[in-house]
Amino acid sequence: MRKKKKFITSILILIVIGIFYLFENYPIEGTEENLNKRVESAPVTAENRLEVTFIDVGQADSILLENNGNYMLVDAGNNEDGPKLVSYFKNQGIKDFSYVVGTHPHEDHIGGLDDIIKNFNIETFYMPDVITTTKTFEDVLDALEEKNISLSIPNKNDTFSLGDASVKVLYVGTEEESDLNDTSIVLKISFENVSFLLTGDASTKVEDSLDRKDLESTVLKVGHHGSSTATNEDFLNLVNPQYAVISVGKNNQYNHPHNEVLNTLAKNNITTYRTDEDGTIQMITDGVNIEINTMTTDTNG
Question: Would the pLDDT of 15 be above 70?
Answer without folding.
Answer: no
